[in-house]
Design goal:
Number of strands: 14
Shape: globular
Distance between the termini: 15 Å
Strand content: over 45%
Structural class: mainly beta
Largest sheet: 6 strands, antiparallel
Number of helices: 1
Length: 142
């Protein structure tokens, strides 16, 4: 039972396929969590990391129709120097990380969400020529 309580995760995937641009305001959707939860991991992959500049990803908490602001004290940053296809991620339960040179993993100032609060992913900037970002948000009941 303890194993299941610790490692029974649910996930939601944000896909930004093809070339894309700066996105702020849930143009690509909003994850609404149906029960009190905590974010336990973030994983992702970029097929093409780009030719110049950085991709910066932010995560916001949304309550009803109000943006409660960023939940990250350090945003996810993917430089164009990362090898294409490289995966990245961090598991806050086990403290395990998968990263590469040029990837800054997120640091949360709050990983707890109440029932029916939303989570929104913003792209603050995108590296030139970057394509195909998948970002997985893993969560469990609390």
């Amino acid at each position: 039972i303890n194993f299941l309580n610790t490692y029974w995760y649910h996930s939601y995937t944000f896909n930004f396929l093809g070339p894309f641009h700066k996105i702020q305001g849930a143009e690509d959707g909003l994850m609404i969590i149906p029960f009190d939860s905590e974010i336990v991991a973030i994983t992702g992959r970029r097929r093409v990391y780009g030719t110049s500049g950085n991709t910066v990803i932010d995560i916001h908490k949304v309550s009803g129709s109000s943006d409660s602001g960023s939940v990250l004290s350090t945003k996810i940053t993917l430089t164009n120097a990362v090898s294409d296809g490289q995966v990245f991620g961090t598991n806050f339960v086990t403290s395990a990380n998968a990263t590469a040179t040029g990837v800054t993993l997120p640091v949360f100032n709050n990983r707890n969400f109440d029932a029916f609060q939303g989570l929104r992913v913003d792209i603050d900037s995108n590296a030139s020529g970057a394509k195909d970002l998948t970002l997985n948000v893993w969560f469990r009941a609390r």
